[in-house]
Amino acid sequence: AAEQFFWYATILLHAVLLCRFLRIGLPICYPLIFAMLVMQLVRSVWLTQFTITPEVFSRRANEYGFTVLFTEPVLIAARAAAVFELCAGVLQSYRGLSVLSRVTLLMALGASAGVSLALHWPEFSFEREPFRYLRMLYLLETTVYSALLVFLLLLALFVLYHPAPIRRNLLAHGIGFSVYLLCSAAAVWLRNQDATQWTRAASTLRLGVTVAGLAAWAWMLSPRGEAETVDVHMPLPAETERRVLERLSALNSALERK
Hints:
The chain is an all-alpha fold. Helix content is 79%, strand content 2%. Helix 4 runs parallel beside helix 6 (132-161), helix 4 (61-90) packs antiparallel against helix 7 (168-193) and helix 7 runs antiparallel to helix 8. The longest helix is centred in the N-terminal third of the chain and has 30 residues, at 61-90. The protein is globular.
């Protein structure tokens, strides 16, 4: 009952979040994030026809499974693209650094993928897995999401140290994404420990935390959020902050001249 409640709550909150995007005019600013949310909502609404009742689900479980199997890789790619769009937005104040990020951040993503594979390598076992293809999909999902989380952590460390202002809506996107990726990776990791024991609990946990993350995401967005900025960096002595900003400005100018 709890799992089904959270399932319909996520559909409702995805719709609310998309309405907030449209009302504020964010699809133009964040087309990849908007497209990802639309794809997620459409897939969830389509899947409801298979989960109306336990009887319907048992009769149409194969259709449900194949729908997830073929759409989840597309959604994983869409979420990864949305994270890169988020990163580009964070570095937008320093266009030169955005140019640098095309190489540097790809290297950071490669390092993040390596860390993720090292963390999840013990899960690449199919001994007690009754659904091998589903486990392969979950392994792809948790590995990619963990890599994106490490990537976002590296980006957050950059933002925390460098005193550059961040748009308020951009911060909302970052928090919403981080919550979703974290709960998804954790739930899949839990499920992979013992599929027969933890599948339902992991799904309920994932949906419950996703509901909270979507609600916070929609609540933090505002029409003024693209113009208003917030300082999220660690407190720095005035002289240190001045030197850091000078270095960033100099690096930005040098890169833009190339």
